[in-house]
Each structure stands twice: as C-alpha cells, then as structure tokens.
Amino acid sequence: VQLVESGGGLVEPGGSLRLSCAASGFTFSNYDMSWVRQAPGKGLQWVSGIGSTGSGTYYLNSVKGRFTISRDNAKNTMYLQMNGLKSDDTARYFCTTGVDAYTFSSQNRGQGTQVTVSL
Question: What are the Cα distances from residue 75, in Å, to 2, 6, 18, 27, 71?
C-alpha cells in the first residue's frame, strides 16, 4: 500500500483547500478509504470516509457541511474538498484505508500534507 497526499498549505480562516491522495500498490477500487488528521500534540482523528465505489460518504460532525470527500477509481485518487476552514482544522492530513473511526488503518497512511489555517 502506497499513499501520497498533496494539496495542503496555509490558508486564512474561511478559505478553501482541496487535498488529493494518490494510491498505488493495491487495488484501490476494492478499498474503503478515509481521511484522518493529527493536530500538534494530539492523536489521530478520523475526519471522513468513503466506500469503495464512492456510494457512501461519512463525516466527523465538526466538518459536516464544510468538507466533501470523493474518489476517482479510474485515477486511483481520493480527494477532500475543504471549505469554510477554521483554525481548529489545522493539522497534518493523511489518507488511509478503512471507512470510519473504528476501521481506519493507522499503519497504511501516507506521509501526509500539512494544512494550516491562520491569518
């Protein structure tokens, strides 16, 4: 399993970013996937998950209505569109296998991409 996240950066509160996760080394279309994040000094937090076909999507309550997860199985890529960003969203974001807070894999995640929300 190889996962490479990109698209992070510094953005002002209220701004938007689109994260991408490029997958290789496994049959991406067979796997549920998630985005998780880790803020400084804190543990991994599940953010959003999507079923293998993209038909089911799931969100942490605090990001519902602001974040949208999607995937393109033909491109072996998953996305996270983040709108209305808040300072509490500042964290390193990782993609991984698994669909929710109970099943995501902390081992399969990539190197992550940093999202910083600040003036």
Answer: 14, 15, 16, 11, 9
Average pLDDT of the chain is 96
How far apart, in Å, are the Cα atoms of 3 and each of 36, 65, 73, 95, 109? 13, 26, 14, 7, 6
Structural tokens at position 49: 């998950």
Using CA atoms of 84, 47, 95, 80 in order, give the dihedral in degrees to the nearest 10.
Answer: -30
Query: Which two three-digit tokens encode residue 7?
Result: 């698209």
Single-letter residue type at 97: T
- Cα distance between residue 10 and residue 33, in whole Å: 25
Cα separation of 76 and 26, whole Å?
10
> What band does 63 get if pLDDT is binned at 50, 70 and 90?
very high
Dihedral-angle region of residue 87 (phi above 0 means left; psi in -120 to 50 means alpha; beta otherwise): alpha
**What's the pLDDT score for residue 44?**
96
Single-letter amino acid, residue 35: W
| Amino acid 74: pLDDT | 97
